[in-house]
Design goal:
Length: 234
């Protein structure tokens, strides 16, 4: 189903009375003043064509049959929510998003196309991610990456410039290279399955001692028998 077909079927949508307006001219070419929500699973939306390009509120296209976010809005003044929509790529995601991004429960193997600055939290949990190597961004709140396939955090600090909150990475097969977390600006805590490693690393977060904290943390990890986690980036 397409957006104009949804509007033809449902005369009242998103809290606005649609009536018999010409949708493509009256809405898609003008800013949308409010939230734009298409999260009803019955809509079975498979394209974002005819979507407003500027949305002053939040955008929600969850529980649909999308593969990408192409033809969607490029400016969202609130949250950008696209969970459980069958996404295999974030291509087309808005370049400006004022608040949180939720792309969880999809089929993403990459976070490519995310904005450079995320003005809230990023929830990319329960996808098929193996690393954060294909992004370079700053996150003003938490990063939630639970339930992926991440085995190593090698060079994570080169891709996540700042996370002003917590890193949630439980339910990942994480087993090596965790020290880069100490170089992520603003990171306050990491949550992983290995509680012993988690407690050691968190005792050095937030990192106020720079490289000294890294080497101290490395020594503590090695002494506790976690040599793989203690590997430095190269």
């Amino acid at each position: 189903m397409k957006i104009n077909e949804i509007i033809s079927k449902y005369k009242t949508l998103f809290g606005h009375t649609v009536g018999e307006i010409n949708y493509s001219k009256a809405v898609s070419e003008k800013p949308w003043d409010g939230n734009f929500v298409i999260s009803d699973i019955d809509f079975n939306l498979n394209t974002l064509k005819e979507c407003p390009k500027i949305i002053y509120g939040s955008f929600n296209c969850s529980n649909q049959s999308l593969k990408t976010l192409e033809d969607g809005p490029n400016h969202v003044g609130g949250d950008y929510i696209c969970f459980s929509s069958g996404l295999t790529s974030l291509k087309g995601i808005a370049k400006f998003i004022l608040s949180n991004i939720d792309c969880s429960h999809n089929k993403l193997k990459s976070l490519d196309y995310l904005p450079d600055m995320i003005n809230g939290s990023l929830d990319c949990s329960y996808n098929e991610l193996t690393s954060f190597d294909d992004i370079e961004c700053s996150i003003s709140e938490d990063l939630i990456g639970t339930g992926n396939k991440i085995q190593s955090l090698h060079n994570i600090h080169k891709h996540l410039k700042a996370v002003n909150g917590k890193l949630f990475l439980r339910n990942n097969p994480l087993s090596s290279h965790i020290l880069g977390v100490l170089l992520i600006e603003g990171c306050t805590e990491i949550i992983i399955d290995n509680k012993d490693v988690q407690n050691i690393v968190n005792s050095y977060l937030p990192n106020k001692k720079g490289r000294e904290a890294i080497f101290d943390c490395q020594d503590e990890l090695i002494n506790a028998g976690f040599e793989e986690y203690a590997q430095l980036w190269r």
